[in-house]
Amino acid sequence: MYLEKLSLTDFRSYAQVDLSLEPGVTVLVGANGIGKTNLMEAIGYLATLSSHRVSSDAPLLRFGTDRAMVRAKLVRGGQSTVLELEINAGRANRARINRSNPVRARDILGICQTVLFAPEDLALVKGDPSNRRRFLDELLVSLIPRHAATRSDYDRVLKQRNALLKSGRAGKFTSAHEATLDVWDQHMARAGAELLHARLDLVERLRPHLNSAYAQLTDGSKEAGASYRSTLQHVSEDDGAAPPSRAAAGETAVEPTGQAEDLRLLTVDELTDRYVQAFAASRRRELERGISLVGPHRDELDLALGMAPAKGYASHGETWSMCLSLRLASYYVMMDDARTGGSAPILILDDVFAELDVQRRRKLAAIVSGAEQVLVTAAVEDDIPAELAGRRVKVIPGGIDERDCR
Question: Which fold has domain 2-113+343-404?
Fold first, then answer.
């Protein structure tokens, strides 16, 4: 798959911009702050319906406007698809596929597939667990779009359940509330089981590619690993009480017990039953805290280099290599999927080479150069390794300098 045309209206800094692209490598060159990343962000948003820079849609709208438009023409195997996405302030976003009637924005998920590398990726290792959960879920939805609904259903039920638990913390919890909580437990158990089952499978697919990618980017002296840690594994008869330091962090309810692989053997129905049991065992503590302590929203993707956790132990260079390896592993998983009918993703490297030493630049460039389409941004053209020879596009304030595209 490759992107042939991109058009933005009132998106970020652009009142209007049109960009023509082609297969192979395209490098967008321009000064920092001029809008190169805005173009890449728009493409990534088409793929995931989220930004790699901000958590809400409001900053995507050009200041003073109430909607933005992203239009793209994608080509896959000779077939063209036109996507139009309307990003609205204060109301639901809408989309069109091949100029058909408007559909829900999430109906376009899976059509445009990207793997985006950016300086913000350092949070995948150094940040809190929510960054790694988001990484898994965005990749999961790219591969299996129906899981967007799975995640949406889970978030909706979680919000309702937390509202009831807060009522209990405020001393307003009645027998009627308890009966309602039992109902929400069932809904949350099912949605959580589906999400957990999908994440566990995805981590198994990622693991070998992660280690392979890390070896490609480094001297291969350390192995890179990933394992999924679920709150389901740690609920015990003491109401799932957590050590104070972990509870205060607001993430994992209890310490790991090393049983992560066991959950992979369970079906969605069996995981649902496990969640129902876990909610019952944790209810007293959840009512005291006024929040759900068990579920995929508190799980963790543990990353390791050799025998040590990557977070807190990896050097700056190792951290960058691990982040890049996670993105490359995503690319390889998507390529596995492409061989069975999926689409090869568009690779986007947004201002990444400026962050890397010469050796890592060359290794990363050599790995990605064979992709069907690679889009790169850089403030200085000399930062781009020779392995990424290709078309150059000059980005200027408000648009593209067509006279300086070669």
Answer: Rossmann fold (3.40.50)
14-20/94-97 β-pairing: unpaired
Structure-derived torsion over alpha carbons of residues 350, 354, 358, 360, reported in degrees to the nearest 10: -40
Q: What is the mean pLDDT of residues 257-268?
A: 72
Query: What is the C-alpha separation between 92 and 104, in angstroms, rounded?
Result: 8
138-308: CATH topology is Glutathione S-transferase Yfyf (Class Pi); Chain A, domain 2 (1.20.1050)
Report the b/e string of 311-321 with b at 16+ CB within 10 A.
beebeeebbbb
Angle at CA of residue 118, ends 382 and 401, nearest 5°: 50
pTM of structure: 0.91
> What pLDDT is recorded for position 404?
67
What is the pLDDT, as a whole number, of residue 157?
97
Percent of the chain with pLDDT over 70: 91
CA distance 362 to 356: 9
